[in-house]
Amino acid sequence: MNSKLLWYIVKRILLAVATVWLVITVTFFVTRAVPGGPFLGEKAISEAATAALEAKYGLDKPVMEQYLTYLGDVITKFDFGPSLKQRGQDVIDIIGRGLKVSVKLGVTAAVIALISGVVFGAIAALRRNKFVDKIIMVITTAFVSMPSFIMGSLLLVLFALKLRLVPANGAEAGGLILPVITLALYPMAYITRLTRSSMLDVLGQDYIRTARAKGVSGPKIIFGHALKNSLIPVITYFGPMLAYIVTGSLVVEQIFAVPGIGRSFVSSITDRDYTMIMGTTIVLATLIVVMNLISDLLYKVVDPRITLE
Amino acid sequence: MKKFLALLLALVMVLSLAACGSNGDSEDPSGNEGGEPSGNQGETPADPNTLNVCLASEPDTLDPALNSTVDGATMVSHLFAGLAKWAQAEDGTLEIVADCATELPEGVVNDDGTVTYTYTLKDGLTWSDGEPLTAQDFVFAWNRAASTDLAADYGYMFELVDGYADMWATDDDGNYLNPDATLNVQAPDEKTIVVTLTTNVPYWNELLAFPTYFPVREDIVSDEAWATDPSTYVSNGPYTMTGWEHDSVITLTKNEHFYDAENVTMETINCYLSDDNNNMLTNFENGDWQLIDAVPTNEIERLQADYADEFFITGQIGTYYASWNINAHLLPEGSTLTGAEAEAAESEIRTALALLLDRNYICTEIGQAGQQPASSFVAMGMSDADGSEFYMNAGDPSDDYAGYYDVSDDAYEANYTQAIETLKKYYEFDESTQQFTNVPSITYIYNTDDNNKAIAEYIQSAWAAVGINVQLQNQEWNTFLNTRKDGNYTVARNGWLADYNDPISFLDMWTSGSGNNDVQFGRGDHESTAMYDLDLTPYGYEINITDGTWAETYDVLISTIKTCTDDEARYAMMHIAEDMLMSTGCITPLYYYTDIYMLDDSVQGFYCNPLGYKYFMHCTIGG
């Protein structure tokens, strides 16, 4: 069993590396194939100046040679090169700064969504068809169906502009409160509904009835048997939730002016800042691949009935 | 399993605590020791010595030589001092005055036509780290900014300095011919700068106030990352950079080493970095920020009403226009016209199509920001030889309107009728439906933006009203630039903002070799189109060309203007250049740009220049 798990992990890691390599390769050639370039602007610089810049950053070499050099630098030196637009700065530094903020935002949102989702879901299931359940269901339906840019703008107007409880700028102290809430609401609502239905399902199972018949106490049934098993679907949602948070934060960071990686990701594409595009893509791809791996492993650990192939 | 669940829950709680903990101590955005007013609740800022502004998002660079943005130039103008600067006179007008130089003397014309200027630095100038500022620093900075090594966007601002052409001369393989060439600028002693220009230009003093001409110190900039970190950012202006939280805020603190520190009234300026107009407005409305440089377009009407004293529209030297690809064909199928005849016909067609557009509608209904309908390419705000507005004297002097067509509201009907008559010469017109039936379909391209889209849709509907089928195509910014540059289009949205107050900055971009020649003048089929006349004999030049190509006429005219030292003749020739340009119909000016900003009414002493640079050093709050 253990060696099987180990072999599975090794296999998955190899697959992850291959995935990231594929992403690097495709992104590298696609960015160079699209029209435009890093040195274009509304005011064109002279051809001589463009040539000088291309020579400086090695863009005058054949694309294949550029690709091999880039790949070599990334693998051997973990060197993502200098930004072509933000001159004097290395891609790794810019990404590092943004990632710090984005991870803080994403992890906090994920944790809040997870905890509150499970709690509300459990409450709703235990109070099935009662008033509390109905309230929770109505609210979560609203949250699930409302896109984050609308929710974000609503919160911004209400709490930052009208009530002035929190700053509107995500970079200020306390400025991450609203973005975290905006980002957490959708997965929280989703997890609530997931937990509720799966808990209802579990509560109807024979082994729960048996436990009740044996005279096991209510809380013990809930925490010892029902909740544990009803969390399995929640764990499978871990991967999609992460994907949502990564993509959702692009929008949320924009609305609240959070200095995260999302902004660099979007602007690097508009600017054709090749090295920045590569850097942000590699980081985000790695993040998603790794998180999916963790999610799959957790799934296996929680539900022994799952067999890993 | 139970254990696992407990572990998972514990992990989740630890993570959430860690995340909240790090959330709580998130960086003080001001980055300065004194801290900034923490209250977001107040209507007015608690600290009268701190000004919070938001110009744009994170600048690509704050290296004076590399910067090419208006917001970057504003910050650099607070951090550095050049030989000259923009200042506000007692009566509120703007003028160029000496800054690091004791005065701005006239140049001395040499025998070979070059002009030499000699500047003396003020006494006691120092860098923000206390080191003395020398003339050699200027010499170094200028050579660096103009160098092929740096290849700065604005390196060409030195093209009129003697030696620049040598620095950039290459052989056929692109190798530099004179790798050791430098600008003709010397520092005979610590306080004297001698610079020689290839020709005298009226905007030379203005260039001295341009960020690319600011001094930098060799030992500082030898570290390529110097301009990204406050600890290595040494400057010589009214402020020093004391904090840069990337993508968040740049803090400027008054530089006590600055020679004129006693007249700098604002202690600290926080330049918040955001490009979300809605977010900027929220921060302005809740009193956190005192100046924002952009507002959401759909809020303009409300803001003008609600903040009459705090909403500002100022002129900016720039034109929003549509540019036509001169090589794209517009004549109907079966037309027998070719060469110069076809080009003459198409010039007329393009001009007629321009007349069909109601610029007042575009400005008041779409732009809504005080834009002025444009009737010429050289923008409002550019001065003529006698100090009057250049655009007022553009076009035929016998017309009773300024520019190349009458853009007043009343004239629209007459313009429309005239345009229809012109188009009838080339296309079939169905009198019963009042529509043209055989105009080839036209594709208008624009870069993705709400305002551009609304204008594109208006143009589409205006031309569709007379039976011309217009397809709209929006392109992502960088793709769009590429399409336009390569001339793969028929008609495209375009815009130009001047870098200095001289009409040549609108005219030299249309020479055949220019990188900004989106119209493709003198390229492709147009290269051999010989139909342009140029007579410069009235100005003392032996140039009189009939039926010349674009290169033989326009290019020659521009290079003549660039070496002309007689102001009157120079401006007259610039009018000729614009006449030539407009006669092709390839430029359809729509409006002159304006700059919108919101400024809290508690702030006094603020001013901005026609290039859009904003100045906060003499501001005070309250009182």
Write the layout of secondary structure elements.
The complex is a heterodimer of chains A (309) and B (623).
Chain A lengths: L1 H32 L13 H10 L6 H15 L13 H36 L4 H15 L2 H15 L14 H27 L2 H9 L3 H13 L1 H5 L1 H18 L5 H11 L2 H29 L7
Helix pairs in contact in A: 1-13, 4-5, 4-7, 4-11, 5-7, 6-7, 6-11, 7-9, 7-11, 11-12, 11-13, 12-13
Chain B lengths: L1 H23 L25 E7 L13 H10 L4 E5 L5 E5 L9 E2 L5 E6 L14 H12 L17 H5 L16 E5 L2 E6 L6 H5 L9 H4 L17 E7 L3 E6 L13 E6 L3 H9 L5 E2 L7 H7 L4 E14 L14 H17 L3 H9 L4 E2 L38 H13 L4 E2 L4 E2 L5 E6 L2 H15 L5 E6 L1 H10 L4 E7 L6 H4 L24 E4 L8 E5 L1 H14 L3 H17 L3 E13 L3 E2 L2 E2 L5 E2 L4 E2 L2
Parallel strand pairs in B: 1-10, 1-11, 16-17, 16-18
Antiparallel strand pairs in B: 2-3, 4-5, 5-7, 6-7, 8-9, 9-10, 11-21, 12-18, 12-21, 13-21, 14-15, 19-20, 22-25, 23-24
Number of domains of chain A: 2
Low-pLDDT windows of residues of chain A: none
The name of the CATH topology of the largest domain in chain A is MetI-like fold
Q: For the CA atoms, what is the radius of gyration of chain B?
A: 27 Å
Write down the overall geometry of chain A.
flat
User: The biggest beta sheet of chain A, please?
Assistant: none
Q: Span from first to last CA of chain A?
A: 12 Å
Instruction: Give the helix level of chain B as a range of percent.
Output: 25-40%
Mean of pLDDT of chain A: 88
Number of strands of chain A: 0
How much of the sequence lies in strands of chain A comes to under 5%
Assign the structural class of chain B, choosing from mainly alpha, mainly beta, alpha/beta, alpha+beta, or little secondary structure: alpha+beta
Count of helix runs of chain A: 13
Overall 3D form of chain B = globular
* Helix/strand class of chain A: mainly alpha
Helix content of chain A: over 70%
The total of helices of chain B stands at: 16
The chain pair forming the largest interface, with residue counts per chain, is: A-B, 71 and 70 residues
